[in-house]
């Protein structure tokens, strides 16, 4: 029986955490011995199959009082103990710090480490400290999984050569939804309220849309990240007396019922890895207008004019124009939505799992 271990901070509900929990559960069902090594336990985490073993490799009692550098090396030490005690056939790290820790912890052992890039490398992997760690540690990686071509092209050829590009799996509840007989006069968006998703720009764009189409409303679904974005949105709404047509809906567990009611789906991020919200909207058959943000997530799944529309980042006029185009040309909108729903063929859980399994088996054989 092959043994696979995943390493990340925790399993709180987020993009990388969802991918890890899905993969861990699927590998366990396929008969692999699976470990998930995390730094801490958080609230509202994804559930693991009972056949998956979770191991704590984070700080222990009393460690929090120590200085930052000491805590960093303790984290590496505890993960190194995990590698030695459980000796997986491959260790897969998710997210920036976890990538560094895993490569340091595996050290000179014979356990291969696969790292995973989950965000835009620009701004996240280009600080001086990152450049030092990348130069020192990344050549040790047995492989790397990217989400987009843009991520892959950021790094040196030695990392690109042993890599794979694999999409995030989409929750199956978003597939095969019945198209509404008539759509509401609304533009919809779902994501946590956070700065880089630039919902303020979406509101500015929609104010322009509303001038042409005063019978349409904007519905933004998503929880507050408490970084100040919601307060900015509240001010934009108040300053423009938009309380009746820009609606902050909060989080929802029934997005598969709410999102398809809308006429257009709008995506406004300045940067992303591979945005789950956009993938989900496409899976639901939504006509999508998306910013062509780095590192190429939307462009990875949207063919402009075929299964969605791409517009420049930070350009409310372009976003407004795209939204109006789909409001005014419903035949085009529905055709784009029908084509978008075909993402199910390449981003269902089974298809994504097979890609991961085949790639990791190749790494293990090496």
From TrEMBL:
Keyword Transferase: yes
InterPro entries per the UniProt record, alphabetical: Glyco_trans_1, Glyco_trans_4-like_N
Molecular function terms, GO-annotated: transferase activity
Classification of source organism: Bacteria, Bacillati, Bacillota, Clostridia, Lachnospirales
Species assigned in the record: Butyrivibrio hungatei
Keywords: Transferase
Designated name of the protein: Glycosyltransferase involved in cell wall bisynthesis
Residue ranges of domain Glycosyl transferase family in the record: 182-342
Pfam families referenced in this protein's UniProt entry, alphabetically: Glyco_transf_4, Glycos_transf_1
Domain Glycosyltransferase subfamily 4-like N-terminal: 14-172
Organism superkingdom: Bacteria
């Amino acid at each position: 029986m092959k043994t696979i271990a995943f390493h990340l901070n925790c399993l709180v509900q987020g993009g990388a955490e969802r991918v890890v929990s899905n993969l861990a559960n699927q590998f366990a069902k396929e008969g692999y011995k699976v470990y998930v090594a995390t730094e801490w336990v958080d609230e509202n985490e994804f559930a693991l199959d009972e056949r998956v073993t979770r191991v704590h490799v984070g700080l222990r009692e009393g460690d929090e009082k120590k200085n930052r550098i000491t805590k960093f090396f303790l984290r590496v030490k505890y993960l190194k103990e995990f590698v030695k005690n459980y000796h997986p056939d491959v260790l897969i790290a998710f997210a920036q710090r976890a990538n560094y820790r895993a490569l340091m912890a595996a050290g000179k052992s014979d356990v291969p480490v696969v790292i995973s890039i989950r965000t835009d490398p620009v701004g996240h992997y280009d600080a001086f400290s990152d450049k030092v760690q990348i130069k020192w540690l990344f050549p040790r990686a047995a492989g790397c999984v990217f989400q987009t071509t843009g991520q892959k092209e950021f790094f040196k050829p030695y990392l690109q050569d042993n890599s794979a590009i694999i999409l995030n799996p989409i929750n199956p509840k978003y597939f095969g939804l019945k198209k509404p007989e008539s759509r509401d006069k609304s533009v919809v968006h779902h994501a946590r309220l956070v700065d880089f998703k630039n919902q303020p720009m979406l509101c500015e764009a929609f104010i322009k849309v509303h001038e042409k189409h005063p019978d349409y409303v904007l519905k933004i679904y998503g929880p507050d990240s408490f970084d100040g974005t919601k307060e900015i949105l509240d001010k934009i709404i108040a300053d423009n007396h938009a309380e009746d047509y820009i609606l902050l809906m909060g989080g929802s567990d029934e997005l598969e019922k709410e999102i398809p009611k809308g006429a257009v789906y709008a995506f406004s991020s300045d940067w992303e890895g591979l945005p789950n919200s956009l993938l989900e909207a496409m899976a639901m058959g939504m006509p999508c207008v998306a910013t062509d943000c780095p590192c190429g997530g939307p462009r990875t799944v949207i063919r402009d004019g075929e299964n969605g529309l791409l517009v420049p980042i930070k350009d409310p006029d372009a976003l407004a124009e795209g939204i109006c185009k789909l409001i005014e040309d419903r035949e085009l909108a529905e055709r784009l939505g029908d084509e978008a729903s075909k993402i199910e063929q390449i981003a269902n859980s089974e298809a994504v799992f097979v890609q991961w399994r085949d790639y990791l088996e190749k790494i293990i054989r090496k």
